């Protein structure tokens, strides 16, 4: 199966990987285990564009997703993530002199990052997000809607787009709208999951239905360039898991240069390596089950929910999350309860699966503080 590539509109997407019946929403938690198990499912049919390096889910149907207030994927309750966000905000304010300026954040979520940018540089903030109920900060104005240039009545000096582009079926159209609200010299900061981490380091738990698009560094840089922005820097951070581009609006778009070709061997090898990793974890959980171990998983986000659905349905007793908005609810597709760390002792858990190495230290510290004698295992 092939389809035209929506990012470069020149190459074709060739299918290289399929996974069926994954939950449509990894980041919606359910009020009961039954409702969680009955959650809607969809398919991943990933295609690769050898011209620009993009990866898309050909089975994605945006009509099946609605981002309302039930959508909860905030990571700000984790001190590790909060530190990362703080350094990022400070870096942007410093590098681009964002002081007394107007900052627009598209897909601002609950507005934590935008508020911080406003605070750090004494800026004005505009946030636009259909899932945002409002922000307390008086210097931040929130528009509860999907973004289009017509909805913004100011000219931003900095536009922030974090973890949005991977949800958007037509990224070129979104960047064109961003260009319309920008002035020459407006800085854009775009952050997405790093598809190279998924391909190279087998970050396979990041493959979720909500993400229709997966960006490799060359694909992101090329897309931004062709949309009329000049990339200043493209880099991976957060342990290689996130990919960012900082760019400035310029006079016109660039041409496609066929940047994706170098990725083809990695893409071809992916499905086989994916199957091996899944088999390893099925066997491991099976063995632990036979040994009578009580296993919990830490992190009821995309990675944790994907792991539970693919391999951990029966053998993992609960999911732990520090976000109180998730606690007491249930994991989409599999129905495990999401519990606060303090419950682990009573649940007699002896093994904690760490879904993200970035949080290992934080998790081990928390377990020690709670007096929970469980060993941590990196997934
Ligand atoms: Zn393409």
Write a structural description.
- Pfam families: Methyltransf_14, Methyltransf_23.
- One of its GO terms (molecular function) is methyltransferase activity.
- Keywords: Methyltransferase, Transferase.
- One of its GO terms (biological process) is methylation.
- Residues 268-369 form the C-methyltransferase domain.
- The chain has 379 residues and is of the alpha/beta class.
- Among the domains are: 79-254, Vaccinia Virus protein VP39 (Rossmann fold, 3-Layer(aba) Sandwich), CATH 3.40.50; 292-378, Rossmann fold (3-Layer(aba) Sandwich), CATH 3.40.50.
- Helices cover 28% and strands 23% of the residues.
- The chain is built from nine helices and 17 strands.
- The protein has helices at residues 33-37, 79-96, 112-121, 171-181, 195-200, 217-226, 264-290, 302-310, 360-370; strands at residues 2-4, 12-23, 41-49, 55-57, 102-106, 124-128, 140-143, 158-162, 187-193, 213-214, 229-237, 242-249, 295-298, 318-320, 338-339, 351-354, 375-378.
- A seven-stranded mixed β-sheet has the order 7-6-5-8-9-12-11, sandwiched between helices. It has a five-stranded antiparallel β-sheet with strand order 1-2-3-4-10.
- β1 (2-4) and β2 form a beta hairpin.
- α2 packs across α3.
- It binds zinc ion.
- Zinc ion is lined by residues 5, 7-8, 11, 49, 51-52, 54.
- Zinc ion binds at residues 5, 7-8, 11, 49, 51-52, 54.
């Amino acid at each position: 199966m092939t389809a035209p590539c929506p990012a470069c509109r020149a190459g074709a997407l060739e299918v290289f990987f399929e996974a069926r019946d994954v939950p449509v929403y990894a980041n919606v938690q359910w009020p009961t285990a039954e409702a969680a198990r009955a959650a809607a499912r969809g398919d991943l049919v990933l295609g690769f564009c050898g011209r620009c390096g993009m990866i898309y889910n050909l089975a994605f149907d945006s009509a099946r997703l609605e981002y309302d207030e039930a959508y909860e994927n905030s990571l700000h309750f984790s001190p590790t993530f909060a530190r990362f966000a703080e350094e990022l905000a400070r870096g942007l304010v410093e590098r681009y002199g964002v002081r007394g300026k107007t900052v627009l954040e598209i897909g601002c979520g609950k507005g934590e990052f935008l508020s911080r940018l406003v605070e750090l540089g004494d800026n004005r903030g505009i946030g636009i997000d259909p899932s945002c109920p409002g922000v307390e900060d008086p210097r931040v104005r929130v528009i509860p809607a999907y973004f289009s240039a017509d909805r913004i009545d100011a000219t931003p000096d900095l536009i922030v787009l974090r973890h949005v582009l991977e949800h958007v079926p037509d990224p070129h159209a979104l960047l064109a709208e961003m260009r319309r609200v920008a002035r020459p010299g407006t800085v854009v900061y775009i952050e997405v999951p790093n598809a190279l981490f998924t391909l190279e380091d087998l970050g396979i738990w990041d493959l979720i239905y909500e993400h229709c698009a997966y960006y490799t560094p060359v694909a992101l840089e090329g897309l931004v360039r062709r949309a009329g922005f000049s990339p200043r820097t493209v880099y991976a951070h957060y342990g290689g898991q996130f990919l960012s581009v900082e760019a400035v609006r310029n006079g016109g778009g660039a041409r496609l240069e066929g940047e994706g070709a170098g990725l083809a061997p990695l893409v071809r090898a992916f499905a086989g390596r994916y199957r091996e990793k899944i088999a390893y974890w099925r066997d491991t959980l099976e063995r632990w089950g036979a040994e009578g171990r009580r296993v919990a998983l830490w992190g009821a986000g995309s990675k944790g929910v994907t792991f539970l659905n693919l391999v951990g349905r029966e053998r993992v007793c609960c999911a732990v999350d520090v976000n109180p908005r998730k606690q007491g609810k249930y994991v989409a597709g599999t129905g495990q309860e999401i519990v606060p760390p303090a419950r682990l002792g009573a649940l007699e858990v002896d093994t904690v699966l760490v879904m993200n190495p970035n949080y290992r230290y934080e998790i081990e510290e928390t377990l020690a503080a709670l007096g929970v004698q469980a060993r941590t295992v990196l997934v």
